[in-house]
Amino acid sequence: MTTLDLPATAPPARPRREWPTLTAVITWVAAGCFVAVILGVLASVVVQSFSTTWRGGWWPDGLTATWYGRAWSSTGMSQALVNTAQAGIAVVVIALLAGVPAGYLLARRAFPGRSVVMLLMLLPIILPPMTYAVQLAALMYRVGLGGSMTAVVLVNLVPTLPLVVLIMVPFVEQISPDVENAARVFGANNRRLFTRVLIPLLLPGMLAAGILVLVRTLGAFELTFFVSGADTQTLVVALFGAISDPGGVPISLTAAMAVTYMLVAVLGLANSLRFVTPSQAIRQRHR
Question: Where, by residue number, does the polypeptide cross the bilayer (predicted)?
Answer without folding.
Answer: 21-47, 87-107, 119-141, 153-172, 193-215, 255-277
